[in-house]
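Lecture notes, unit on protein representations.

Consider one protein chain, 68 amino acids long.
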Amino acid sequence: MNRRYLLKVGILGACAGGGGHRAPVTIGLVSTGMEGPRLAVQIQQIIQDMHSQGKATALTHTLLSPRA
């Protein structure tokens, strides 16, 4: 399995949890070095792909950075 598939499964799994309530879901990813921006781009692409397929249309994402 590749990273993109695992990210998609993780995003969908996090959104499916919560007992059916529509509430914001926070997924925290810890990365080192230059991986953070790459992961952010991959997550954005996965969400755009799902939206284009009519899936998870209410799903949005926000990038939070500990950097100033």
